[in-house]
TrEMBL record:
InterPro entries: GAF (IPR003018), GAF-like_dom_sf (IPR029016), HATPase_C_sf (IPR036890), HATPase_dom (IPR003594), His_kinase_dom (IPR005467), HisK_dim/P_dom (IPR003661), HisK_dim/P_sf (IPR036097), PAS (IPR000014). PROSITE patterns: HIS_KIN (PS50109). Keywords: Kinase, Phosphoprotein, Transferase, Two-component regulatory system. This is histidine kinase. Pfam families: GAF_2 (PF13185), HATPase_c (PF02518), HisKA (PF00512), PAS_8 (PF13188).
Length: 1147
């Protein structure tokens, strides 16, 4: 709905948007950009909410939406891709021409038709079925031709005539811009298409070879047909469509063998140019399909078919261009038809197969080669002759001859096989063609599997970086090899350290193996293949090949094999692995298979190297992750011994180290510590040596010891020993027996060596630079974990002492973090609450613990509210709560925040105190007070009443002695009653619970009422009581309790103001508060007394004159009530001049 605007504002907005449009449309924008900017201006200036701007398509006589606002997204897509077929110019043109705009009311006859269209549902059901108008405003060109449409929905309001006029103004602006933009686009498109057509015709006039003709068309018009598929279908004289010499998809030339819709071709050939929408996929919009007949002198030569690859229409310039191109193609076909039928067919076939990458041959019905393309000529070295001249082995020649016979006789339509041509592994396919069921020849297509294999492995190599599961890729590689070489069982072995291998992938009988098994290279065929750098084969009896292969442990994988191939996978001069293929046939693999595998091995080797790098990175990352996890655990749950054992076993397992040790000097304990995993070592080791020598972390003394671990720590430098037997330092070291190589690395803290890592292997030269680099990277993690574990043990020892102190507390303590997970609790907490199970650290308060606590309470509501207050409190301090357990025990629960540096609240301490004794005392006191109030005060009051009756003569006349004795009794009774009341008032003050019932009220009116109430008493004492307040002061508070405060202040003022004095009650409004003041002209209060007047039971009069005038609870009660309102109270006074009591309340 557009909001009605005053004329001046509307005019200014239209002017502003007109200036903006003149700037943004000053160039030569397209129709979509023009309608978008005009639509935005209509929205901003006129305020319409639902707007659709469409462009008129002359070809289909319908409006196509190009911009919309506030249209349902689901149907908006359909609006943008499907033009509206119902709202056409002939429906509304007369009204448009007559009024310039057309307003459709609910009763208009065209309304129902519009509802049924695809166009309007996108505007929403409310726009169609509710009250309101739909405004249709045409966009005309300068020649009064309709080129667009503006549609606006006006909801729940009458259409504003001024806005409609301005809407027509914007439509005129849009018309001018669209006309200029469309002319520019049409001029550009026509110019481009004309240029392409002229260039194509000029080139065709110089070409006599039909094959070059089709290639020329494809090269010239391909760029102009992006988003379309073009097919040329050639007909013979009988009208059957059998070949498509030109197929372009999205501008690229495709294989000519494609399917054709015969009914479509017949209709185009008989009825002329055709257009229809077709559905390619049920879930995608329909696409346009157009066809033009290829005719010369009314003779049908074929059909040109163009199909859109995307939804949408074909513009007029493109359609005109294709129509003219159809004429040029027809002229060329006429020249093709001028030759004899076979020559024509051969030339057409040659036209699309000549430049195909695969080798293609055409043979006639007597098996003579009549055509070969360039690829076939290079592969066979033939141009013509019989098929027996092809470079095939005898068995393949016999198969080819038999296959052609079967195709010619109709036994089969097609035939295919894998063959060897000039040492190249290829696939061959045969397809015959017939004329009126008469066999006329066949086309032979030969596809090189070598190139396919290389391309395939090139693609697989690119997968290594993206494929997370690198263990899966070798299986894919092995399956790819089967595509080129037949085998019964196969495996890819990855070379690890030294001469050891492990399975990466396997198929057939080689699958049945231990995945953790290691295979070692021994003298045999595999070693020879690695040394020579080529594939070698071996054939023999079943069970004899494993020994000849020269790989230990291959007996079971090669069970049943009689022929084997082993291929070394070498990349950058290094052997990365082996591929072993076997079959049950005893015949050796053909040399062609061997050559094929050698050609593929380069790609396989590179991929295997990439797999090795990826596996190594994965292994190293896994090791880093595990050490990080261990390092974090070291600061919480692991002891030093457990930590050392876990780190050593983790590193040794990942790096396949036979023996390993980690040693460090523990500065806290002042001794060497460490651990090692070793199969030998009974004759001593580094720790035993340090213990026996008594050496601490003394680098000079360590350097004097002829022991490599001590030397590495002293020097602070790593060392790799490739052969322990050739190093004199190890000849006498019994704990190194059976080990061949080692690596030592210092552990440093702040560049200071504090220990070392030792790694040992039973293989010679096992450790290299990569191992050293990895361990150097990991050593800070090891140092950090060890340091954390040592500090944690020290903290744990200190924590044990603190824990003993906490457990000795009589109070119950529960500490939780900011997420209410338990950090710790003491035994007192579990004892006070009567818990039968220990509360463990890390347990969530709300998951189990809270229910244990509430189950022991007589009423759990108080505890639940307490924890809820703790959860929402920003400080962590909430009002303590007293709870009663089911066993009669009473607890007081309070909270305190746990604070750290720069972190104001990281947790809470929940303290439980046993107040059962205090509660029992309070109950006794309550009973005692009740006894005083009922059993003492009431009888005393009755005695006083009786004495008053006797003294006033109501019980008879009294003599002088009687009157004196009864008067004394009356005075003593009153003093006793006053003492009793003072006691009870003091108790009530302590027990009073401030519960405010706040309302909005006029405190000025309350002041006036209280002044009126106290005025008689003031007049009786000859005191002037005055009031100075504003007429109205509204505040929020408990009116009754504030009345009590003012009454107490007035009562005190009357009590201490002498006769003839003055009392003034004032109120004043401040910025954020209200102040009430009671001033008198009494004796005043000294500076010493001013500090104590609000203390309980303090009485200025008693201290000054020795007489008591009250309980001393009035002012303390005033202070208590004012502060409960969030205010404050104070006194200003001078001795001899009077006092002024003021209290302030927030507004």
């Amino acid at each position: 709905m557009a909001e009605r605007q005053d004329p001046a504002t509307l005019q200014n907005k239209v002017l502003s948007e007109s200036l903006r449009l003149s700037q943004v449309l000053s160039g030569e924008p397209g129709p979509a950009k023009i309608l978008q900017e005009v639509g935005q201006s209509i929205k901003e200036a006129l305020g319409y909410k639902v707007i659709v701007l469409s462009l008129y398509e002359n070809d289909i006589g319908a409006f196509k939406p190009l911009w919309m606002e506030s249209v349902d997204p689901d149907t908006g897509t359909e609006l943008l891709t499907s033009p509206n077929p119902l709202i056409r110019t002939q429906l509304l043109t007369e009204d448009f021409l007559r009024s310039g705009s057309y307003i459709i009311k609910a009763d208009h006859p065209v309304w129902e038709g519009m509802k049924a269209s695809r166009y309007l549902p996108g505007l929403g059901e409310e726009a169609l079925n509710g009250s309101g108008d739909v405004i249709l405003n045409p966009i005309f060109s300068s020649g009064t031709a309709m080129i667009g449409l503006i549609m606006v929905v006006v909801k729940d309001a009458e259409t504003d005539t001024d806005q409609v006029e301005y809407l027509s103004y914007f439509s005129r602006l849009a018309g001018c811009a669209l006309e200029r933009g469309l002319l520019y686009l049409q001029r550009e498109e026509n110019s481009n298409f004309n240029r392409i057509l002229i260039q194509t015709v000029e080139k065709l006039e110089k070409i006599s070879d039909p094959g070059h003709f089709w290639q020329t068309i494809a090269e010239n018009i391909g760029t102009a047909l992006k988003g379309f598929e073009l097919v040329v279908s050639i007909a013979n004289q009988e009208g059957s469509y059998y070949v498509h010499p030109l197929v372009l998809r999205d501008g690229k030339q495709m294989d000519g063998l494609t399917s054709v819709d015969g009914a479509w071709l017949d209709r185009v050939a008989e009825q002329g140019p055709q257009t229809e929408l077709i559905t390619v996929h049920p879930e995608k919009p329909a696409v346009i399909k157009m066809g033009w007949p290829l005719e010369i002198e009314k003779e049908s030569l074929g059909v040109l078919t163009v199909t859109g690859l995307n939804s949408g229409e074909m513009d007029r310039p493109t359609a005109d261009f294709l129509g003219m191109m159809a004429t040029q193609i027809a002229l060329a076909l006429f020249r093709v038809r001028s030759v004899d039928e076979w020559t024509s067919r051969k030339e057409v076939l040659e036209a699309y197969i000549k430049n195909i990458d695969d080798a293609v041959l055409i043979v006639d019905s007597i098996k003579r080669i009549v055509f070969v393309n360039n690829s076939a000529q290079q592969l066979t070295d033939l141009r013509q002759g019989g098929i027996d001249k092809l470079p095939l082995n005898q068995s393949d020649k016999e198969w080819l001859s038999t296959a052609l016979d079967d195709v010619s006789k109709g036994v089969t339509k097609e035939a295919g096989k894998k063959i060897i041509i000039k040492d190249s592994y290829c696939s061959i396919g045969i397809k015959g063609f017939f004329d009126e069921k008469k066999y006329t020849g066949s086309i032979i297509k030969i596809h090189s599997l070598k190139q396919e294999g290389l391309e395939y492995f090139k693609e697989l190599a690119g997968m290594v970086a993206a494929l997370e599961d690198v263990e899966l890729l070798p299986q894919i590689l092995l399956k790819a090899v089967r595509h080129f070489v037949d085998f019964d069982a196969g495996s890819i072995l990855f070379r690890e350290r030294g001469d050891s291998f492990r399975f990466l992938a396997s198929q057939g009988t080689m699958i049945d193996h231990d995945p953790d098994m290691t295979f070692n290279l021994i003298t045999g065929l595999a070693e020879a293949a690695i040394n020579e750098g080529r594939t070698l084969g071996l054939a023999g009896k079943e069970g004899s090949l494993a020994e000849g292969l020269g790989i230990s442990g291959m007996e079971k994988p090669l069970a049943g094999a009689r022929s084997v191939l082993v291929t070394p996978l070498i990349f950058k001069g290094q052997n990365t692995g082996l591929m072993v293929l076997s079959k049950k046939d005893q015949a050796a693999y053909p040399e062609t298979n061997v050559a094929m595998i050698d050609e593929l091995s380069t790609g396989l080797s590179k991929i295997l190297w990439q797999i090795g790098v990826a596996s190594k990175l994965k292994q190293e990352n896994a090791l880093r992750t595990k050490l990080y996890e261990i390092g974090f655990a070291s600061g919480s749950v692991l002891q030093v011994g457990s930590l050392l054992n876990l780190m050593i076993r983790t590193i040794a397992k990942e790096l396949k180290i036979d023996e390993m040790g980690i040693y460090f000097f523990d500065e806290v304990l002042g001794e060497w510590n460490g651990k090692a995993i070793q199969s030998t070592g009974k004759n001593g080791g580094f720790l035993e040596l340090m213990k026996s020598s008594g050496i601490k972390l003394d680098y000079e003394r360590l350097s004097e010891i002829k022991e490599i671990t001590a030397t590495v720590i002293a020097r602070g430098e790593p060392e790799i020993v490739p052969d322990l037997k050739s190093d004199p330092r190890f000849l006498s070291a019994g704990h190194y027996q059976g080990l061949r190589s080692g690596l030592w690395l210092p552990l440093k803290l702040k560049d200071k060596p504090i220990g070392a890592i030792s790694a040992l292997s039973k293989q010679i030269s096992y450790f290299g630079h990569d191992d050293l680099t990895l361990l150097q990277e990991l050593s800070p993690l090891v140092t950090f974990a060890l340091r954390s574990a040592v500090l944690y043990e020290e903290i744990r020892r200190e924590g044990s002492r603190v824990g003993a102190i906490i457990n000795s507390m009589p109070e119950g303590l529960l500490m939780v973090d900011s997420h209410f997970k338990v950090i710790m609790s003491n035994e007192g907490f579990e004892g006070l609450w009567g818990l039968k199970q220990t509360i463990r650290p890390g347990a969530a308060l709300q998951e189990g613990i809270l229910s244990l606590l509430t189950n022991n309470l007589a009423n759990p509501r108080g505890l639940i509210d307490f924890f809820q207050d703790c959860a929402i409190s920003t400080t962590g301090v909430v009002t303590p709560v007293e709870l009663e357990l089911k066993n009669g025990k009473h607890l007081k629960i309070s909270s305190f925040p746990v604070e750290e540096l720069d972190r104001p609240r990281t947790g809470l301490v929940i303290l439980s105190q046993d107040i059962t004794t205090e509660h029992q005392i309070a109950e006794l006191r309550q009973e005692f007070v009740g006894m005083l109030s009922h059993d003492l005060r009431n009888p005393l009051a009755a005695i006083i009443a009786t004495l008053e009756l006797a003294l006033d003569g109501s019980l008879g006349e009294l003599n002088e002695n009687q009157n004196q004795f009864l008067g004394n009794a009356m005075n003593d009774s009153r003093r006793m009653l006053e003492m009793l009341n003072d006691f009870l008032d003091g108790y009530k003050y302590d027990a009073v619970e401030i519960k405010l019932e706040k309302i909005n009220f006029d405190i000025a009116q309350l002041i006036s009422k209280l002044v009126a109430d106290f005025s008689p008493l003031a007049r009786e004492r000859n005191i002037e009581l005055l009031q100075e307040t504003s007429p109205t002061i509204t505040i929020t508070g408990d009116e009754g309790k504030l009345a009590r405060v003012i009454s107490n202040l007035l009562s005190n003022a009357l009590k201490f103001t002498p006769r003839g004095g003055t009392i003034i009650l004032k109120s004043a409004e401040r910025t954020d508060s209200v102040e009430i003041a009671v001033s008198d002209t009494g004796e005043g209060i000294s500076a010493e007394d001013k500090e104590k007047v609000f203390e309980k039971f303090y009485q200025v009069e008693k201290r000054r004159h020795g007489r008591k005038t009250g309980t001393g609870l009035g002012l303390p009660l005033c202070k208590k009530l004012v502060e409960a309102h969030g205010g404050k109270i104070w006194v200003e006074s001078q001795v001899g001049k009077g006092s002024r009591f003021i209290f302030s309340l927030p507004r």
